[in-house]
Structure formats: structure tokens, C-alpha cells
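Blinded run. Sample ID left blank on purpose so nobody reads anything into the name before looking at the predicted structure. Input follows.
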Amino acid sequence: MQHRIVVLGAGYTGAFAAGRLARRLHRQDVAITLVNAEPDFVERVRMHQLATGQRLKPRPFSEMFAGTGVELKQARVTGVDADRKLVSVVDVHGADTTEELPYDTLVYALGSAWNPRGVPGTTEHAYEIASRPGATRLRERLEHLGAGQTVVVVGGGLTGLEAATEIAETRPDLDVALVARDALGDWLAPRGRAHLWKVARNLGITVHEHTDVTAVGADHLTTADGRTIPAAVTVWTAGFAVHPIAGGTTLELGGTGQIVVDDTMRSVSHPDVYAIGDAAQVMGPGNKPLRMSCASGLPTAWQAADSIAARLTGGKLPHAPLRYFNQCISLGRKEGLIQYVTADDRAVPAALTGRLAAVYKEVICKSAAWGVANPMFGLPARRRRVVREPAAAGSSARAVA
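Blinded prediction complete.
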């Protein structure tokens, strides 16, 4: 009987893990099902580009997984019963009935979405770019926005910086503002902060530092100090929240709602479940949790896929390098910022700026998408036979009859 592996979510981590498992394990021994609501791969790190009208390269899963044995099930996940080892899904093509998918090993990669943080008016009036539907909706709004109108981006993190600079560069006729809770780029080294301010000034971006937004209206923001900031369009990028499905399960979760895993990405409460990417609470260097990002997600997918393969084939457990090297920020199409960091994500003095940094960031984005479609690059292509079942926590693996 084939070992059933179900992967939930086909973002960077889920798609990468599914492809890597398919190329690690013998096709006769495993059945790999990838559950995703959309039929093609979404480059989430490019949603700010989509929002400003740029065309992104289509990446259909039918082409990416051709000949691999991965079965794509286009459906929406509605629940996970981790005790009965069942996933409930609803077909996205209009069927109302719920189907249950049994699994032997589950890879939970449902990721995250935007986080309104409970601020009144955000869900009603703000736009998000954490998803393709959100970015598409913002694009349509920007296309109908007249010259001189104000676009306010809330959030001074990487997503906010990329959104504000992309919009300002693409639409120099608009009045673009950025609202940051702390000082602009306060986590960057001095060289990085200086370049960030230079780009903001050159693009005409108004920066509101040390500002908390307490309410979002149809045409304005209200701040904690009582100010009103005009906003024909509000783009909300103030952090991410994990997918809520895990919260309805018996899986052990951390305070953020992420699934608590060990260093092989296996759930500490359910050893047949692996969590990766934004869905997992992963401890990195210095015993600090990894931040939600593509830079964190791909190494966790690598670790999970190879750990599953090792446990099934009797191989040695791998140890992917769960650490950081740099933070890559696009500041429009012509400028960029590469802030080099320590293993635990603290800025060091070195930084790459300007056009070269923009090219570097583009290479990173293309490499991430290429890696999803080619998860076995540089590794033996030989598929291994399944010889044993994954062991329960605290026990040894047993041989398959």
C-alpha cells in the first residue's frame, strides 16, 4: 500500500516540499497530493509589482509538476482532524460537498495572510497585498485614481517599503505616504537607513514616523495622537497572521497560532504532521523564532521534505541551515537595498545599495521561483524506496511488512 502524503498549500514552501518529496521517493511507494485553491504558483514576493500593473510570468502547476507524480487537487481546505488523520476540503469549481482526504503524513503549509490587527475600519476600507486577489483589487483601484490623490501605506516593514516605493515610482502623479510605528528602517545599519531615506525623498514619499494608526476611514486615517491623515487609498501592510485552520485542531500551537515543531519541522504533538513556512513556529539561531518570510520558509520546506524522506527510507536525518544572510528589499525597479545580517537576523554595517542591489533582489526572486520548480537541483535524482514507516515520537521506526 502506498504511503499517502498530503501537502496543504502550494506557496513557496508547499510547492517546494511536494516537488522535493516526489524526487526523493519512489513513485510506486508514495502517493503525493498537493491541495491548493489556485491552479498556478503565485509569487507572493511580487504582489507589490502586480498591484502596480506589472505583468507576472504565469507558472501553472500542470507544467511545474509534469512527470513528477504529484497530484494537484484544486480545493479549499476547511479543516484538519489531526487525531483521525483526515483533511476536509471543498472543491473550488462549485461543488458544495465536503470531501475527506486521509493521510499518513501531512505537510501543513497554509501560510499566512494580512493582519488587520483589529484596527477599526481596516477590513472595510484598506487594501492588502498579501494575496493575489488583494493585489489585483488594489491594482484596479489605482488604475482609476486621479493625479494628485493620496495613497497611504501603513507599515514600515519590508512589505510596506516595497509597496510604497513601487507605487511612487510607477505613479509619480500620486501623493504617496508611508506610516511607520517606529523610526523608518530602524532595524537597518546606518548605511541602509541613509539609502532608504534618499530613495524616499527622491520618489517624493511623505514619511510619518512613530505613528500608530487607530482607525481607517474611507478617505482618511486616524492616529493615536489625534491627527487625521488624508488617504484616497489605504494599503495595509502591518504584519501577517497565520491561517486559522490550525487553530481548530488539536495540534500544539504557539502564542502566534503557529504549529510548534522540532528541528525536523515535525509537530511536537502529532509526529505524522509537519509544518513549514509561516505556519510553523521554528526556532533559529540564538533560540529566536524565525520571522514570516520566504527566506525562512524555503529552508524549512527543505528540512521537512528531507526529514520525511529519511524517516521513510531509513536514511540519515538532514539538518538544513536555518539562518539568515541578508534582507533583500526592492525600492521600485531601479533601486534596491541588500542589508547583510547575522545568523539571527541582526544588521551588520555592510549593505549593498542602488541599481546593483535592485538586480541582486531580482535574481533572488527569480531564484526562489526557479527553486520551487526545480527542488532537486544539485542533489541525486535517484528516488529511494520506502522501507519503513515514520516512528511515533519517542519510539523507533518499524519495518513495513
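Unblinding after everyone has recorded impressions. The two ends are 10 Å apart (CA to CA).
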